[in-house]
Design a protein that fits this description.
Ribonucleotide Reductase Protein R1, domain 1, two-stranded antiparallel ribbon, single chain, 3 domains, Fumarase C, Chain B, domain 1, 6 strands
Length: 461
């Protein structure tokens, strides 16, 4: 993190540690940096923000309860707010894959805030200092704060980013379904000819699928509002003021403007990671639907000369380094990749959720990273899908009409008149001779006004 060539010496329970002079973090963070050089990735900005919210809220609650002197509390709150704002992000340096349950990450926050608060008070890092454990971590444990930070970061990102993005996608698909409703085309089942359908009807199906996911996501997010601050190490509320939990959660709610509340059962909260698991299941289902929708759009736009070519997509970039003029469905492919990552993430969160023993789940850093990454990926991908693809889709009406009129599925319209078996033979003959259903009927003298009406695609939708 630091380019400084000067260091200071700090001590923890294991002895002396050499730390870059310009780093706000301390000995335990430095040990984690040296021990866990695994992925080169830190936990997301949204998680670090949530840590800052918790530390500021805890300092205020402890001050109001008379446990933390006001000068220390105010300095800690100011430093924690800088964490919330992202000013101190460069000092959060612990790898995602770290000591179980996130002890290193919690100490990273405690040390950064303690040292910055000490500086705010006008003290030097070598002098009279605010203590990371005694003051910044007062009334807390890694076990309740890390878990709560996952919920806070997840809820904020879903409410402020993902849900609006899902709603935007639904609105655009709905608008597009209305725009494309006049366009008739062939339906397909098993990728083979089926009854006619309106292009707008296909899009209305996509829109309603996304709309349902929106409601499922809203419902699942409600579980994230349970945060067990004050549970401390194992849920027994050890070393806290009787009013601490109520006050700290109230302050988190004020800070975020979200309805956080105490868990129904503190021990269940401490033992399990239910809320991220439930939300990830919704995100996995959403990813599955998005893969289906984007795959459909790739099929419908395939060609432009050798595929269905029933719709055209906006051209956003050249598609080949060797084939001049080729344009691929790049945005749809990007979304598909994002969805594959989200589906894999759900499996990761599920297996990590099974890895808890007794009073705590030690896999929370992995859950935090994977869970928040899935929300971030979808929050970024959906607006791109809407603005660079969905909103610019246009119908190729002539191609739609051509495929529809050639479809063997039209024979279904006369099966109630001539019978299923005879209709099957007519369809099979048309297929074998590569001619239309109408031609076969005309040759057999069956093209009556009643049959012609039954073959009209508009009467079938």
């Amino acid at each position: 993190m630091s380019s400084s060539k000067t260091f200071r010496i700090e001590r923890d329970t294991l002895g002396e540690v050499r730390i870059p002079s310009d780093a706000y973090y301390g000995a335990q963070t430095q040990r984690a940096v040296e021990n866990y050089q695994i992925s080169g990735r830190s936990l997301p900005r949204s998680f670090i923000r949530a840590q800052g919210i918790i530390k500021a809220s805890a300092a205020k609650a402890n001050m109001e309860n008379g446990l933390l002197q006001p000068s220390y509390a105010k300095a800690i709150i100011k430093a924690a707010e800088e964490v919330v704002d992202g000013t101190l992000d460069d000092h959060f340096v612990v790898d995602v894959y770290q000591a179980g349950a996130g002890t290193s990450q919690n100490m990273n926050a405690n040390e950064v805030i303690a040292n910055r608060a000490t500086e705010i008070l006008g003290e030097t890092l070598e002098g009279n200092r605010i203590h990371p454990n005694d003051h910044v971590n007062m009334s807390q444990s890694t076990n309740d704060t890390f878990h709560a930070a996952i919920h806070i970061a997840g809820a904020e990102n879903i409410v402020h980013r993902l849900l609006p993005a899902v709603q935007q996608l639904h609105n655009e698909l709905k608008r597009k379904s209305i725009e494309l409703m006049p366009v008739m085309k062939s339906g397909r089942t098993h990728l083979h000819d089926a009854l006619p359908i309106r292009l707008g009807q296909e899009f209305s199906g996509y829109a309603e699928t996304v709309h349902e996911i929106y409601h499922q996501l809203e419902k699942a997010t409600d579980y994230l509002y349970e945060i067990g601050l004050g549970g401390t190490a194992i849920g027994t509320r050890n070393n806290i003021h009787p009013q601490y939990s109520e006050k700290v959660i109230k302050e988190v709610s004020r800070f975020t403007n979200l309805p956080f509340r105490e868990p129904v059962d503190m021990f269940s909260f401490m033992q399990n990671t239910n809320a991220p698991i439930r939300v990830m299941l919704v995100l996995k289902e959403f990813a599955m639907h998005l893969i289906k929708i984007t795959s459909d759009l790739r099929l419908l736009s395939s060609g432009p000369r050798t595929g269905f070519a029933e719709i055209t997509l906006p051209s956003v970039q050249p598609g080949s380094t060797i084939m001049p003029g080729k344009v691929n469905p790049a945005v749809l492919e990007m979304v598909h990749m994002v969805c594959c990552q989200v589906i894999g993430g759900e499996a990761s969160v599920t297996t990590a959720g099974m890895a808890g023993q007794l009073e705590i789940n030690v896999m929370m850093p992995l859950i935090a990273h994977t869970f928040l990454d899935a929300i971030e990926l979808l929050s970024n991908a959906l607006p791109t899908l809407v603005t660079k693809c969905i909103s610019g889709i246009e119908a190729e009406e002539e191609n739609c009409k051509q495929w529809m009129n050639a479809s063997l599925g039209l024979v279904t319209g006369i099966s109630s008149i001539v019978g299923y078996d005879r209709a099957s033979k007519i369809g099979m003959e048309a297929d074998e001779r590569k001619i239309s259903i109408q031609q076969v009927l005309e040759e057999q003298g069956l093209l009556t006004p009643e049959i012609e009406k039954a073959l009209d695609p508009k009467g079938m939708v």
